[in-house]
Design a protein that fits this description.
This protein is 32% helix and 27% strand. The chain is globular and about 50 Å long. The protein is of the alpha/beta class. The strands form three sheets. It has a six-stranded mixed beta sheet. The protein is built from eight helices and twelve strands. The protein has two domains: 100 residues, Ubiquitin-like (UB roll); 128 residues, Cytidine Deaminase, domain 2 (3-Layer(aba) Sandwich), CATH 3.40.140.10.
Length: 266
């Protein structure tokens, strides 16, 4: 596989500057093709995380293989083939809606949330009760500094978004960056799945605003605590309230705002 670049230097009126790379990705899931735009890197994590956060698979065991298409050139990284177990049926119609959802939806906010909650958590198919999680305020206060230190691409370009996963004790497990917030989240989720780590007792931290789409992915994946350095949207708060998720915004060393289910914060 050819080396990839997640940033490039371009000419400006003041000299040169680093910008984030955007490239298309053709994600093939058992023959169903979904075209995404992402920052190169961690494509296999992105593919697995996408399948899980959109409810296609219930665990990494549902994935038989995932690989770059053998093209023999530098564009090979722009196509990922995911082969699923025979027991997994791909709902192409729902997945197409999921991809197109970024451009808008004809449903009302209440209908979108009701549909989300009705479909439930992806991991519930395994019928395993979720572990309990509690996080200390002083632990949360230390997370923003750790996240910023991990945002190498954002430091270089000023444009990348980050999704990071921490333990309840504040240890960073993974941080992924991408021009797309949803891609960064899927990459982080995919990392946990490939490493066979339980998502449900982890803390998700996002660098930007928490939107419906990000909360939907977090809900499907089983996160009980979602934090962000910025503020959430109204639909994100509504999902958190109805989906039993502790939602924290404006996370900083000096304080935070808890929008839903504060009982997990001690």
């Amino acid at each position: 596989m050819a080396d990839y670049k997640d940033s490039l230097e371009v000419k400006t009126d003041g000299g040169r500057a680093s910008v984030v790379v955007e490239e298309p990705l053709s994600l093939r899931i058992d023959g169903a093709v979904f075209n995404l735009v992402r920052t190169p890197g961690c494509e296999q994590e992105l593919a697995v995380g996408f399948c899980f956060s959109e409810g296609v698979i219930a665990s990494i065991k549902d994935v038989l293989s995932f690989a770059y298409t053998e093209r023999g050139d530098e564009t090979a990284r722009n196509t990922i083939d995911v082969r699923l177990s025979d027991e997994v049926a791909v709902d192409r119609t729902r997945l197409i809606r999921a991809v197109n959802r970024r451009a808008g939806s004809s449903l009302s906010g209440r209908e979108m949330i009701d549909d989300l909650i009705t479909r439930g958590h992806t991991w519930k198919r395994a019928a395993v009760p979720p572990p309990k999680i509690h996080v200390k305020r002083e632990t949360l206060a230390e997370i923003p500094a750790i996240l910023r230190e991990s945002q190498v691409l954002h430091t270089k370009t000023g444009a990348a978004q980050a999704a990071a996963v921490f333990t309840a004790e504040g240890r960073l497990i993974v941080c992924r960056e991408d021009i797309g917030r949803h891609n960064a989240l899927d990459k982080a989720i995919g990392h946990l799945l490939i490493a066979k780590m339980d998502i449900r007792d982890k803390v998700l931290v996002l660098s930007g605003p928490v939107t419906y789409e990000l909360m939907a992915k977090a809900y499907h994946s089983g996160f009980s605590v979602v934090c962000a350095l910025a503020e959430p949207t109204s639909l994100a708060v509504a999902i958190a309230e109805k989906g039993d998720i502790t939602l924290i915004g404006s996370l900083a060393a000096k304080g935070m705002t808890i929008y839903a289910h504060p009982e997990r914060v001690t």
